[in-house]
Amino acid sequence: MTRTTVVAGVGPGLGSSVARRFAADGDDVALFARSSDYLSSTADEIQAETPGSTLPVETDIADPTAVASAFETVRDAFSPVDRLVFTSGSPSAGGGIVDVDPAGFRDVIDTRLRGAFRCLREAVDDMVDEGGGTVVVTSSGQSRRPSEDVAYAAARHGTRGLVRSLAADPRLGEADVQAVHLIVDGWIDKPSLRDRYPDHDRWMDPNQIAERIHDIATTPGTVHANEIDLRHPRDEPSF
């Protein structure tokens, strides 16, 4: 049976690895991102390498209309959504409460927290109607520890609360919808980070993370997860 998977936040690190892993199973995979050129080339590469079908959908998740339109595009091209993997980051605001620019704070919250809410709302609505599915929202260790970067921390703490609250919704449990907050507590290997931090030596392979996400999404059975953390074997837990 062909499944429809949406990967929201496809970039040269984890998002593209996740899309490739699900397409390797023959899934119909929709890729959401703002960069149309990167999105199209990545979708074409995955389409050529895997048995799955890919659909690049240029999407600004900070825009409610764009998100609603993107999911309608997926439904028209494939089917209602069976799986959502939300890997999107956010713009940088920086600074503590007395330094952060209010407009920058708003942009971070609107992209990361409200963006996750918009995508979850669309995907979960499909899953409840269709009788099950899985959403995985990736985050960092700052989703459960203090940080002076008030915008970054607030967005990630909020996202954690959003996803964890889904486990308390009886309608989702009855519909066999699994919602997982996945903490990637380490450095994901991607070219931009390697260039900036050439001395760092504890990189997490995005393909291996994608494999874990695939396992979570495809084998829920009678055991659902709600929060999982991943780290490099030489990193100490940050909680």
UniProtKB/TrEMBL annotation:
Gene3D superfamilies: NAD(P)-binding Rossmann-like Domain (3.40.50.720). It comes from the Archaea. SUPFAM superfamilies: NAD(P)-binding Rossmann-fold domains (SSF51735). It holds the Pfam family adh_short. This is SDR family NAD(P)-dependent oxidoreductase. It comes from Halorubrum ezzemoulense.
